[in-house]
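Milestone M4 deliverable, item 7.
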Amino acid sequence: RARARALSLLRALQLLGKGGFAMCYKARCVETSREYALKVANGETLTRKLKDKLSIEIRIHRELSHASIVRLDRCFEDVGGSVYLLLELCEHRSLADYVRRNGLLGETEVRRHAVQLSEAVSYLHERRIIHRDLKVSAPLSIARARRRLSVRVVRAPRQPSNLLLDSNLRLKLSDFGLAATLRPASETRNASKADL
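Output delivered:
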């Protein structure tokens, strides 16, 4: 009942993007007016393998709390087997979308985003998590002109991006669908000895 109530309180406002097996919408909670990104994996198309992959993504994402990682607020499944992830909304969408709309990034912006990304990746690695799917969604061209480093998007087919920007233009790492948790080396050594 709690899941049905949570779902009934959300209103999808706009499609944000499509991934391999899920769609992401901008959604609003009717009680609080708070906006979220709502990732929906349709139960009719979720194979056992995809559901297992999604379970791993959710397990990993639930463990994370960092300023440069998109926050997972909650997740639930409906009676039809569709899975819903309620995520922090990044108002400026992807880094590539931002560059397409606003033009070149200056050296200061590029440096700030690089630091934020490296902080997020370091945080993951400290927890023995590897993302395995960092992408901007379109090739970026980096050039130095008149003592200024600039970045622009090169025309290419659009793909989902994992580097998003919030309302304060802080870079946020998202989409842990291919992420993995590394086992400690001692477990790996013991497992390989046991296999002999």
